[in-house]
Amino acid sequence: QLQAFGGGLVQAGGSLRLSCAADGRAFSLPTMGWFRQAPGKEREFAAAIRGSGDIIFTLYGDSVKGRFIISRDNAKNTVYLQMNSLKPEDTAVYFCAASPFFDKRSESFSSWGQGTQVTVSS
After folding, report:
1. What's the CA gap between 122 and 113, in Å, rounded?
2. 8 Å CB contact between 47 and 68
3. Cβ contact 99:28 at 8 Å
4. What is the DSSP letter of 41?
5. Phi (first) and psi of residue 15, to 5 degrees
6. For 64-121, what is each residue's pLDDT tens digit?
7. pLDDT, tens only, 15-49
8. CA 92 to chain centre
């Protein structure tokens, strides 16, 4: 089970931090990721993270690179997505997911949570 929360309405240029709480089974998968889906568009990869301690690997989608930061707290079974310099085109439902693989393909992710709506006003 995965549950994303923290979405809301924010003005362009603002920031939001999303959180995703996972049960032990989901969090045991090595990769945690965030995807987003805007109305009428396909699901888009945002970020993924793998590892713990001093050895952490991250991946970012081109549209969020340099603005979003993914992190995880293994002690809390939680993954975060810090979203900065938000743009209206970031408006979407954001989903967290878990995968045994480390890549950007949504089909690689086997566990999905309910999404949280992020709306960025211009």
Report:
1. 28
2. yes
3. no
4. S
5. -135, 155
6. 999 999 999 988 999 999 999 999 999 999 999 999 999 899 999 988 888 999 999 9
7. 999 999 988 888 788 999 999 999 999 999 999 99
8. 12
pLDDT at 51: 86
User: ∠ CA 43-75-111 to the nearest 5 degrees?
Assistant: 30
Please write down the long-range contacts of 54-57, taking CB distance under 8 Å and 24 or more positions apart.
57/102
CA distance 61 to 68: 9
Q: What angle do CA 118, 14, 59 make, to 5 degrees?
A: 65
Query: Across-strand partners of 99?
Result: 31
d(CA 48, CA 98): 9
The two three-digit tokens of residue 104, written as one number: 């950007």
CA atoms within 13 A on the CB side of 46: 27
Contact in structure between 120 and 38 (CB atoms under 8 Å): no
